[in-house]
Structure formats: C-alpha cells, structure tokens
Write a structure and sequence with these properties.
Largest sheet: 4 strands, parallel
Structural class: alpha/beta
Number of helices: 9
Number of strands: 6
Length: about 220
C-alpha cells in the first residue's frame, strides 16, 4: 500500500483503501509493466512526501507529468538537476524574473520550493511516455480532488495557483473566502502569451502570505553559496 511518511497517510487513508483507488492501482501495474511510464513508480507521490499537509503555504497545480525521458520526478513542472528545463518551466522562470527580479536558474529542480511549503501537484500523477494526458480519467483526479478538498478545509489560509484548464477545473473545490485563488493559462508555449506572462502570481502569493502572518516563499533557486 501507499506509504508517504507524513500526515498525508492518515488524511488520505480512506482514499487509499477505496475501490476506485484499487482499480487505479491495477491500471498502473499494467501500464508500468507494458509501457514506459513517468515518473519512476517510487517518485509518484513526491509532491506529498516533500510537503506535509500542515506545512502547505501554497499549491501550484499542473496537468500531468512530463512525458519525455528523464524529466518527471513527482513534482509538477520540476526536472532533476542536469536535465534541460522544458519550455513551460523556462516560461515560469521568465515570469518569475519579470515579477520579482529573481535570476533565472540553470537548474529546473523545484525541490527548494516544495521544502518551503509549496505543494507542487499535478492533477494526474503519472503519464505514458510521449502521450500527454494518457492517464487522465483513470482515477488520479479523484485523489487530487481529495487533496485539494482537504487543504481547502484547513483553517490557516493558503494560496492555490491554478495554471491551465485541468488545474482550473479544481476551482469549485476551493473555499475562496478563506484562501487566495490565482488562475491563468498554462505556461506552455501554446498559451503563455494569453495571460500567463504578467500574472504576477509569485509576488501576489507572497503578499497574501505576509498579510496573513505567514513566512513568504523564497522563490530564488539560484545557488548563492
């Protein structure tokens, strides 16, 4: 069974025991044994492993994992060190630089954000190689709906950052009277010029956190050692 290793285990225990999750597990067993699937099966729940339920300050919600070799490692939009940042991530860094003047990093690994309380969650947590959205509608959405719902029920305010149609579909699950909802088109090259650039989601997130007495996120990923 799933073992995340923090409070998510208890919070999502009913989901992990449900019939629909068992069907999803069977689907994934078949996919991983017959096709190349990303991320590695041991990285599927990294978003939850890195960012405990009670530590979440902000949620960045993506679509599904990168579907190219060596890219996905369980955090939305993130790639491991040494892997060329994909176009969407480069656009995220461009907006971050424009918004806060943060230098564009060489590495596309976003682990530092996750460790500060930014839940980097996709709406589907796996994908078949070369086939975006191939694991959509197989059960992941029910699990990520549960994650968003549980977070929305939390009393301490947080920021929900919804990029793209799959992410924005989660908006009805979020209590907008308590939490800040920021939404825009996806940072993909296909949609980035239709409202992603200039959304100022990074500074707006920190402004909301500070106004609610919460430590802001240090978005700077450059190595200053």
């Amino acid at each position: 069974m799933v073992h995340i290793g923090n409070s998510w285990d208890e919070i999502l225990s009913e989901e992990f025991k449900s019939d629909w999750y068992m069907k999803l597990r069977e689907f994934l067993k078949y996919e991983y044994s017959h096709y190349k699937v990303y991320p590695d099966m041991y990285d599927i729940f990294n978003a939850l492993k890195y960012t405990d339920y009670y530590a979440v300050k902000a949620v960045i919600l993506g679509q599904d994992p990168y579907h190219g070799p060596g890219q996905a490692h369980g955090l939305c939009f993130s790639v491991k060190k040494g892997v060329e940042p994909p176009p969407s991530l480069k656009n995220i860094f461009t907006e971050l630089n424009s918004d806060l003047g943060v230098p564009i990093p060489q590495s596309g690994e976003l682990t530092k954000w996750a460790q500060q309380g930014v839940l980097l969650l996709n709406t589907a947590l796996t994908v078949r190689e070369g086939k975006p959205n191939s694991h959509r509608g197989k059960g992941w959405e029910r699990l990520t709906d549960a994650v968003i719902t549980k977070l929305s029920q939390r009393e301490r305010p947080m920021v929900f950052i919804l990029w793209g149609g799959n992410a924005r579909a989660k908006k009805p699950l979020i209590d907008g009277s308590r939490h800040l909802i920021l939404e825009s088109p996806h940072p993909s090259p296909l949609s980035v010029h239709y409202g992603f650039f200039g959304n100022r989601h990074f500074s707006r997130t920190n402004e909301f956190l500070v106004n609610n007495g919460i430590e802001p996120v240090d978005w700077d990923l450059t190595d200053r050692a």
